[in-house]
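Input chain follows. Return structure tokens only.
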Amino acid sequence: MAGNFTWHNKEKLEQSTTLNATRQSEVPLCSIADVQLRFLCPDDLNEVRNLCQDWFPIDYPLSWYEDITSSSRFYALAAVYNFAIIGLIVAEIKKFNKLNKEDRGILPDSMGRKSEIGYILSLGVHRKHRRNGIGSLLLDSLINHLTTAERTSVKAIFLHVLSTNQAAILFYEKRRFHLHSFLPYYYNIRGKGKDGFTYVTYINGGHPPWTLLYPFQTTFLYIFQNFSLKKKIE
């Protein structure tokens, strides 16, 4: 994995955790320069699990946390401030022909045969540190990683998001992700089916399928999305 960020030894970080516990709750994040990025490791499992259970409505199995904190298959990056994880992004690179059926329309078949796609599984930031650029820092690190000369086969980055998660939708739209598809009952949250959206951004010369219906399909999706959000507010 590649990236331009500062590496930190977790054991040294933990030595000062108690000393900084009080200061962490009192000192606000004032500069993005105060944040360091490092990859997750097995010792992070419990901390990451507690954070994800607080941030996300989805109950991930223990095996998922074991994988993202130990497997090189994932690009699993933590944002650390005052010796604590305050944000993380988890992504993986998928072969086009290994995508689920609902995601294969992201690229044209002619391009997709030899292409790969980046998939963001999770991106979250601690509540008291949001709106400080942490999410953008993590996302930019992933994009920089996937746009190096060694990754030119990666033609797009996509993710799934709850259709009612307006904050996440606005975040990705501001960063040039585009609504690609509607996924009815995609999520199972506490036994109830919840709708989702697929969002995509294209990199390394990638582009959506060029068909006569594509512009109309995209327009319809945005109209539907706005209707859903308006209905939620009401």
